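Lecture 7 notes: from sequence to structure.

We start with a single chain of 527 residues. Read the sequence below before looking at the structure.
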Amino acid sequence: MITIRAMKSSKRHGGICGRSRRLVIAVVAALAVMSPTASAASDDGGLTWRACEGEGTPTGLQCAAIEVPVDWAQPDGKITLDLARLSATEPAGRIGSVLSISGGYGIEDLSRGAANLTELRRRFDLVGFNTRTTVWITQMPEACKEPGAVLHDPRNKKQYTAQAAAMTKALTTCQQADATGLFTHLDALSIARDVEAIRQALGEQRLSFTAHSLGGVAAAAYARLFPQRIRAMYVDSVGNQTKGWPAHHLQLLPVSQRMIARFAEWCADTPACALHGQDAEAVWRRLLRAADRHPIPVTSPQHGTGKLTGWLLGALVPRDPGPQNADWLTFATSVDKAARGDGSGFADVALFTARYSATPGALAMSCGDERGYTSYAQLEDFLGKARKIAPEYAGAEISLLGCTGWPLPVANPAPPTAHPRPAAPAGCRHHMGELPPNQELHQHDPGIGDHRLRRARTRHLPVRQEMSDPACHHLPDRPDPAQAGHHLSSRRATRRARRRRHKQARRGDHPSMVSGWSDDSGGVAIS
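Now the structure, written as tokens:
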């Protein structure tokens, strides 16, 4: 029995088309309320939809709620998840529903992105929901809100063990203070089962999906658990969990190098850049080395005091220029000041990153997905590989250090891939395609996001492009002559399978199609 309750939602910055980069404790204080009116309409699927209210609410946005178990293995305790829907504007040609799986506040993503989704909405109901992590944020005990340690790059096993022990203590204290039971059930598998409950409540045989950020991990989990329920799926900025999070972050190291190189090229051509006329990349590298030798004291009104090290600064490389290159302009100014001993430009983001990465309540939202180093030996292996890939960023990944003290069994470990492939640099691995069966993989240059709406609507992306990622340039363009027969046979089989799947898609009986965006400014499409 699904229990319907009055819908309460929240507002935060972001949108369905952007990357959700934060799911922070402090956001709760800034929430604005979106509540339903008294009128209600019942659907065959079992949900009661009500017109949403609130400043900036798009016309036609409807709200509902659904109860799901805290623990799907013991479905006694319940939590309520809020949903919102924009119904198809051409119901006679309606195909189905597109459900957005966000990193948290999916209703606000849907609300903010509504104006950009008019074409997709013609033949689809657009549905968003606030994940169970949002329930956790509103009910998190105070004991879960303070960092468990001042994270640092451990130089030996003793330092690693001491830091992990401090985090274990803080995480255990948080777990003991939690009266909801959610601390142990915030993993992607639990969210995936919530998604399946929503599908059933919507009355849909199959759903189309969009997912981004942490929601992409839940989308991958859903694809493993319920592949037959997927009509199409688009994932944006999803982490590659299939080989483990340390391997995923190794893949991202060349991304940081490329982004700094792009930043330096832009700065050389932009008089407004604070480092214009200098070798911006060289200035950045010198700053990293100098800050490791002599950390820069910083103070933040929101996050207290601390020190900027090269290790911490390395985690702050901007992944995109921002609107009108605003992020690059700010980054250049901050680097210029820090090179002269003034770290104020980095203070807020650096101290926030350090605190957030050590805060038990925040870590509970990802540690259950095996997001951490499992041992000092694994860290040593990571560091050895990192030094070969990008020496300037070859420290422990800060986002993984907090979970090294996770006191519980991992609920959603990295799954084995169906067809292991040889190691390749960032941008060349496509393990998302190895999760559900019957799929076809495409790699695209930056800009695949322009095609995401077409993908959700038609289940097709543009014709495959050659991989242009510089990290992939070492890969041979042609097969080894000794393997030519095998490769030719494989290509023919692939083409035949592709034609067969496209025929199935036109008939509407394709088992599942997935598309996605890698986190290295390139696109990965799986269909």
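The chain has a mean pLDDT of 78. Keep this in mind for problem set 3.
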